[in-house]
Amino acid sequence: NYKITKYFLEKGLSGSEPLKSDEGMFFIFNQPDKYGFWMKDMKFSIDIIWISEDRVVGFVENAPPASGQSENNLTIYSSPENVDRVLEINAGLVKKWGIKVGDQIH
């Protein structure tokens, strides 16, 4: 159902409690494209990992919450190239785990 999917994609982790250390939100897209993510109504910072096929092509570290901001003032974090997957994890894990552009995803 398109409406449910669109709502879920717009909502993401907004309004959620912080993730546990071994949790994340994984987005799988049917078609590679440059996807944009915002931090609307988030309660915690996250790292966003952009994935094309099985390779990390970029990431955003420590994207801060944007609670209470109007949609017109939100930062949009966009993938650096077409991707088919995106992983949102707790802020600081990209650095802690040493994730680099070019890393293979299994």
Question: What's the SSE blueprint?
Answer:
Elements: H1 2-11, E1 25-33, E2 36-37, E3 46-52, E4 55-63, E5 77-78, E6 83-90, H2 93-97
Antiparallel strand pairs: 1-6, 2-5, 3-4, 3-6
Features:
14% helix; alpha+beta; two-stranded antiparallel ribbon; 106 residues; single chain; 2 helices; disordered N terminus; four-stranded antiparallel beta sheet
Mind explaining what this structure looks like?
This protein has 106 residues and is an alpha+beta fold. 14% of the residues lie in helices and 35% in strands. It has 2 helices and 6 strands. The longest helix has 10 residues.
Class by alpha and beta content? alpha+beta
Distance between the termini: 29 Å
> Could you give a short account of the major beta sheet?
4 strands, antiparallel
Spatial strand order of the main sheet: 1-6-3-4
Return the average pLDDT rounded to an integer: 82
**Which residue ranges are poorly predicted, with pLDDT under 50 across at least 5 consecutive positions?**
1-8
Helicity, in percent? 10-25%
Q: Treating each run of at least 4 consecutive H or I residues as one helix, how many helices? A: 2
Gross morphology is: globular
Question: How much strand?
Answer: 25-35%
Helix and strand run: HEEEEEEH
Tell me the total number of β-strands: 6
Radius of gyration (CA) equals: 13 Å
